């Protein structure tokens, strides 16, 4: 069960024409790889993606361990959220250090992406090292947009993080980061 109600697979959406040349963020409103999601739902979604091979599909999760159970087509980007290198335990997701280790193991299978959203206080050298070791195709950085009163870095720390990340990967800054920069 999610915050908004009972989980369900929208079977009708699986029949939509996905076209070609599109980048599609699959499950952007939920974590399709969460432990509560049935395996057969994931399989149905992947089959639909395979039927439209001229698109690129972004799968993002806080539970990247489930990526290890699947073979992915070449047109997939695998992503996880790593908000910080510190252990704040703000949700039920696996700890960020576990997500980092798993993503390092996945690097040979598919292009990777890291989402640092909501960005939280971090230890610069360790955090940059984690991300560099994952070798993501790009990193997306955003702020807390739910007013959760999370421990956030200051503008100087964020600017320096972006500068360091740009040395080895593309960085995409989300509009909501302006609130703290």
Automatic annotation (TrEMBL):
Protein name, per record: Amidohydrolase-related domain-containing protein
Organism: marine sediment metagenome
